[in-house]
Specification:
Elements: H1 36-41, E1 55-58, E2 64-68, H2 75-94, E3 111-117, E4 126-128, H3 134-141, H4 144-160, H5 162-178, E5 193-197
Antiparallel strand pairs: 1-2, 3-4, 3-5
Amino acid sequence: VQTTLDASALPSTYGSYSAKAEDPRSKYGHKKRRTLPELIALGFRLVPWDGVEARPIVDAHGRIIAVLAGQPRDPKYSEAVSAAFRSMLLARQEWRFPASMSQHRRGPFPAINVGLSYSKGQRIPLQLNGGEHAVLIRQLLGDPNITRLAVYASAAFALWAPKVYHYYKEHDDALHQKFPHLGRNFAKSVFSSATFNFG
């Protein structure tokens, strides 16, 4: 999918680690939900997609800036997606989530971070334990359907951004050699952390 966007001109935070919000008030669930006609009026275009075939999105200079990664042409994968959805839906219904867990940048719903954390003055990386939701986290991380989705995401990352993937892998392997007690969310995934969104 070709765009006219110049990715190098996008606003970013110091160090270009993440995108910068155009309006600071748009954080933590205060973003305006827009309709399709409103988005089209803002210059967006609707791109038909079957949800299966992978489609890269490229900027004005031909750089891949995002990928619609699709999914394997395997009915078992579609079954895994449906089963993972049911597991998340059941967790949302059966577990109690305080209102404070719905105040974050992802949207107005509970979300739980899992995996490794290394921020806010930490001297060494730590394993997020899930607190009162530790049992739920173990259940979700052990769910073979969720694992299949995570492994596919990691494989798609390796295919579409191989240099960045190898950078992640090299540093993730070194991290686990230095701190062997730190677990991995998914054995075949290069990502050190993930978030379960219950929205």
